[in-house]
Inverse folding.
């Protein structure tokens, strides 16, 4: 039986291989995926990790390297640039 | 629309929202661009044409485009070519050179040890001197406190 604090499914169960056996570990769940602020579509190229892992990640791995990368999706960015030109 | 000399804005990739000019028209909806962006092949779908055009020849060089862009008060991309640096070639030392190296090291060690000894001796002497000075200095004369006599206020008649 799992311990009382591990009975609810709020924590994620991870099976890791130790030399002699398979051990069970409990980890916190990942945050939800990043979304476009305009069309709320899922953003590609933005990792889905806990803050402690994002801190140690280089900046170039955290978002695409175009203007509004990590905030707007590519389609919305194109629309925004086009509208800015025409004004 | 997409002819040589047409000013455009790139709307895809890391050079997005930067101005460029079409230098050459290639096959399959592709053009060669240069200017604020890198000089590269680009799909027409990734460009937004502007109303302005520049007078440049087909396949114009990067330097000529830089001068044209500066007239329009735009910041063209300028990349400095890397200077070639020669790698230092390692040579094995001859046995004579190795001998000299060892002798030098020995001399340095000797000098360092001698200096340390001198410094230690000087430190001990200083400490002794300080101890000798401190003892008489401790007997300081204590200033006698002067107490003012209490004066009773005079009564007025």
């Amino acid at each position: 039986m799992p311990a009382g604090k591990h009975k609810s499914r709020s924590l994620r169960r991870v099976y890791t291989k130790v030399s002699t056996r398979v051990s069970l570990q409990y980890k916190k769940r990942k945050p939800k995926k990043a979304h476009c602020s305009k069309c709320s579509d899922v953003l590609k190229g933005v990792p889905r990790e806990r803050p402690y892992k994002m801190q140690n990640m280089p900046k170039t791995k955290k978002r695409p390297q175009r203007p509004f990368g990590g905030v707007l999706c590519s389609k919305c960015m194109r629309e925004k640039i086009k509208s800015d030109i025409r004004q | 629309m997409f002819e040589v000399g047409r000013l455009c804005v790139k709307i895809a990739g890391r050079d997005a929202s930067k101005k460029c000019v079409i230098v050459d028209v290639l096959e399959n909806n592709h053009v060669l661009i240069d200017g604020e962006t890198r000089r590269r092949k680009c799909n027409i779908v990734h460009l937004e044409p502007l109303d302005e055009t520049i007078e440049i020849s087909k396949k114009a060089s990067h330097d000529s485009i830089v001068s044209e862009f500066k007239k329009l008060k735009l910041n063209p991309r300028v990349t400095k070519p890397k200077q070639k640096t020669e790698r230092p070639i390692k040579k094995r030392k001859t046995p004579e050179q190795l001998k000299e190296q060892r002798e030098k090291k020995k001399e340095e060690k000797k000098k360092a040890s001698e200096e340390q000894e001198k410094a230690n001796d000087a430190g001990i002497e200083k400490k002794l001197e300080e101890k000798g000075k401190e003892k008489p200095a401790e007997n300081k004369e204590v200033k006698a406190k002067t107490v003012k006599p209490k004066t009773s206020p005079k009564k007025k008649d």
Observations:
- Helices of chain B lie at 62-71, 95-138.
